[in-house]
């Protein structure tokens, strides 16, 4: 991941970034600590190329088309999650990134030393793009070609038929004849440390219910809406069909009308005037929460005929 170098060996004009630890409690009760580089300290032209840091992901339209194609062809579908995805990316030769020793590890390294990164870290601006390039390289090794219509759709013709890979950052969906899908999934798991997520029950935040015998599948609105509902308890709010009442305009409240920082609407981060909120802002927040309850009931259903 890195090598230590003495501070005097670092070029005088080089910017040394720092890092932070991100702590999280996982759904299984385990705790995770992840080292993140402070990407906002990076400098365009020195640490990265500002024109090539955004990583593409497959589009919603591509997901819908390929899933319907899977239903029509009675394909198998398997999801593979690449673990520690952003640690797999390589840095370009001209991208010299020096980082201070992470908190808690100063006694593990020499005094007056810094770290020269050899691979990407979470938090770096080029981490997503670097991993995507590594993933595409792995796909080419497996005999797949990238689609000209979508950079995150890879395909390969085999003796048993067509096999597709959909790439959404570290969530990789493989579709095709069952035997080949299992084979290609194992090939990818040899190149990266992956977890086998099984069949197509959930993908990119959507629950998917499928009935191959009756030729229908159902996309249920994003699972993230459920976590939003759990956090803000939207069951207490009425359902709305629009995010705001027609013709309503939010304005800054006068001092005597302000609700205060603690009692401002629940969606404080989305409100430009959160610390100058009045009763109208709180009502708008309730409307938006009610709209999320309406979205919970929205389902997209496809029925096909062979």
- The side-by-side strand order for the widest beta sheet comes to 8-9-10-11-5-12
Which shape, going by the Cα principal axes? Answer: globular
End-to-end separation in angstroms reads 51 Å
N to C succession of SSEs: EEEEHEEEHEEEEHEEEEHHE
Q: Which stretches of 5+ consecutive residues score pLDDT under 50? A: 258-277
Report the radius of gyration as a whole number of Å: 24 Å
Q: How many individual domains?
A: 2
**Whole-number mean pLDDT:** 79
- Which structural class matches the secondary elements? alpha+beta
Total beta strands: 16
Instruction: Please tally the helical runs, counting DSSP H or I stretches of 4 or more residues.
Output: 5
The major sheet is characterized as: 6 strands, antiparallel
Strand content: 25-35%
Proportion of helical residues: 10-25%
Q: Nutshell version of this structure?
A:
With 306 residues, the protein is an alpha+beta fold.
Can you walk me through this structure?
The protein is α+β, with helices and mostly antiparallel strands and 306 residues long. The chain has two domains: 2-204, no CATH class; 223-301, no CATH class. Helices cover 23% and strands 26% of the residues. The chain contains five helices and 16 strands. It has helices at 60-73, 127-141, 178-191, 223-232, 279-296, and strands at 2-6, 16-17, 19-25, 31-37, 76-82, 98-99, 113-117, 145-146, 153-158, 161-168, 171-176, 194-198, 202-203, 206-211, 216-220, 299-303. It has a six-stranded antiparallel β-sheet, with helices on both faces. Helix 4 crosses helix 5 (279-296). The protein is globular, with a radius of gyration of 24 Å.
């Amino acid at each position: 991941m890195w090598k230590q170098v003495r501070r005097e060996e670092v070029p005088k004009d080089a910017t040394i970034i720092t890092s932070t630890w991100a702590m999280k409690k996982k759904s299984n009760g385990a705790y995770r600590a992840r080292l993140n580089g402070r990407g906002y300290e990076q400098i365009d032209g020195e640490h990265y190329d500002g024109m090539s840091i955004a990583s593409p992901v497959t589009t919603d339209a591509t997901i819908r088309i390929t899933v319907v194609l899977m239903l029509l062809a009675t394909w198998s579908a398997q999801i593979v999650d690449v673990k520690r995805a952003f640690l797999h990316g390589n840095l370009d030769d001209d991208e010299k990134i020096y980082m201070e020793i992470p908190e808690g590890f100063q006694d593990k390294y020499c005094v007056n030393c810094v770290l020269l990164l050899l691979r990407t870290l979470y938090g770096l601006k080029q981490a997503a793009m670097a991993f995507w390039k590594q993933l595409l390289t792995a796909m080419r090794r497996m005999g797949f070609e990238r689609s000209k219509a979508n950079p995150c759709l890879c395909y390969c013709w085999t003796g048993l038929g067509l096999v597709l890979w959909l790439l959404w950052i570290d969530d990789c969906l493989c579709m095709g004849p069952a035997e080949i899908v299992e084979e290609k999934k194992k090939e990818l798991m040899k190149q990266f440390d992956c977890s086998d997520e099984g069949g197509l029950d959930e993908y990119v935040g959507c629950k998917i219910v499928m009935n191959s015998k009756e030729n229908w599948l159902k996309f249920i609105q994003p699972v993230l809406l459920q976590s939003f509902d759990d956090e803000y308890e939207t069951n207490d709010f009425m359902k709305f069909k629009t995010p705001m009442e027609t013709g309503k305009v939010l304005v800054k409240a006068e001092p005597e009308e302000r609700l205060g920082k603690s009692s401002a609407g629940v969606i404080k981060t989305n409100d430009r005037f959160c610390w100058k909120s009045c009763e109208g802002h709180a009502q708008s927040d309730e409307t938006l929460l009610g709209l999320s309850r309406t979205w919970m009931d929205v389902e997209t259903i496809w029925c096909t005929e062979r």
